[in-house]
Amino acid sequence: MAPSLIGALLEARIDPVLAQKLADYGAFLLEWNERMNISGAKSSGALVAHLLDSLTLLPYVVDPLVDVGSGSGLPAIPLAIATGVRATLVESTGKKARFLQAAADRLKIDASVVAERAEVAGRREQMRDRFASGTSRAVGGITTTAELLLPFLQPGGLAILQRGRISRDERKALEDAALMLNGRLERIVTSGEAGHICLVRKLGPSPARFPRRTGIPEKRPLCLRKGA
Q1: What is the CA radius of gyration of the chain?
Q2: How high is the pLDDT of residue 226?
């Protein structure tokens, strides 16, 4: 599968050395996917789109990086491959955490895996207010993601949130939630044909009550009305 991945990445004008490394990761992911459900991307073609989408975050990544709800390693592993940043991958599902550790070892990237819920890990002293940048993909609504991610960031750190379409209500909710989390929505950048990158700057230490206890950020999203 790696040759087809490399071909597609080269066609997208990715540097050949980087394309090879990304293809190695992609082939390893697809190999694991045949044994257990790690990712929704089941083919080289589907995976290439995710790899390229991950690389759109490159201009905003600063070392060290935390990725919350890492799943199959997107976007954090491609970013670690491309930049060499130290990455901490927070993933509570056991089989996915095992895959992430195996991938980090196989690819020889500077990554560690924390097999815990973000609501728990984000309250640990060694994890809280520590990271210069953070990503989180497909873990919930926009303000849920912000609540889970910002406590990991150091003051001045940047939360890099990937979204598809973002409504006016969602933008306003994110602006308000960021203030509650001691952050500020700096801007929203258009990415690709229909994607957006929301950049939230951490202004100071996280308020002690965030993140709320396990499950609450998803059940009761900050500042977001039902149906918004």
Answers
A1: 17
A2: 60
With 0-12 / 13-18 / 19 or more C-beta atoms within 10 angstroms meaning exposed / middle / buried, residue 165 is exposed
Give the dihedral sign, CA 198/121/103/154.
positive
DSSP structure string for 27-70: HHHHHHHTTS---S--SHHHHHHHHHHHHTTGGG--SSEEEES-
Per CATH, the number for 56-219 is 3.40.50.150
Q: Domain map of the chain by residue range?
A: 56-219
Tokens found for residue 193 = 């044909």
The answer to whether the beta carbons of residues 133 and 65 sit under 8 Å apart is yes
Question: pTM for the full model?
Answer: 0.95
pLDDT in tens, 68-78: 999 999 999 99
Given a cut of 70, is residue 227 above it in pLDDT? no
Give backbone dihedrals phi and psi of 61, rounded to 5 degrees, phi first. -80, 130
User: Is the bond leading into 211 cis (omega within 30 degrees of zero)?
Assistant: yes
Bridge partner list, 159: 134, 200
Between the alpha carbon of residue 122 and those of residues 32, 65, 99, 114, 140, the distances in Å are 28, 14, 22, 11, 16
Sheet with 65-68: strands ordered across: 111-114, 87-90, 65-68, 131-136, 153-163, 195-202, 183-191
